[in-house]
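Quick question, first post here. What does this chain look like in 3D?
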Amino acid sequence: MLFHSGPPPQGKLTTSAEDEGAKAFEAAGPAPSRAVLPAEAESKHINDWLKRIHEASRKLSYVGTFVVQSGGAMSSAKIWRVCEGGQQLERVETLTGAPRSIFRHNDQVVTFLPDHKVVRSEKRESLGIFPELLQSTDSRIADFYKVRHDGAERVAGVEADIIVLVPKDKLRFGYRVWTEQKKGLVVKLQTLDTDGKVLEQAAFSELKLDAPVKMDKLVQMMTKVDGYRVEKPVLVKTTASAEGWVMRAPVAGFKSMSCYKRPANATNGVIGEEPLQWIFSDGLASVSVFVERFDRQRHDKESSLSLGATQTMTKQIEGYWVTVMGEVPMTTLRLFADGMQRKK
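> Answer (accepted):
Ran it through. Tokens below.
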């Protein structure tokens, strides 16, 4: 999992919804049981659980330290999150690597880069909850993943239920997820390869729920840009078809979520200088396809790279350079790359 700017809305369900989530876990049975639920019951089971996590994101405030281990590397960040009414705001301070502060106020993201005295301000659509587990509430998730309860464990001082999402095919990775028992906050997540081996782990090392985080204080910090150069990169929403691209055949389970491009570079007027980004998701995993003009000086031979759960591959298609990236097996990326076609 790539470390994102912060958790999405994490909050509390109504009592009845929490009861339904508990009943779903009881129906799944204890960890040793691997009995397969009927398709309809399994679909309701997984969707009730995902809905509980998604709904839990609406009202919960907290302060915590989040640690990501991927490909032998480790990164960490301190997170402050507050929800007031329909407003959601978080502040993320990186604790490893170059200093960076990220504020997300609803769909507005402001990133402070102290070493460069630069602030980037942009709008982003949220794809789901932090740490990028739930991309949508698509009921078809149960068509591609099985779910089982795997016991309980303490994480960062809170009791958490452990749920395992097992892919039904070889096109996606699995997940082991720890959710805080009372409110459904995701406190730990492991991404598992097709053999069940841990590729990546992300978890809170410390967590204080219902922390007294002040919205107005974070807003004040977010808007204090004196001494910084403010950049406002613009992403233009478009469609792949409008930009001349189609996917020859759909990749099972993955739906097109959004497509963006940047405006032409004003200094040279070359259209397509910046990459097009086409985003797909199966409701849990996501894949991004980047397309840009082929440049012999920058684009070397086609290649593939694995870093923890994140896989990347590149391919030349006519006069374009295509980069496919996602937390899915490499075979899935190849299906996307091979399916990209320039419209005639």
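The mean pLDDT is 81.
The first helix runs from residue 15 to 28.
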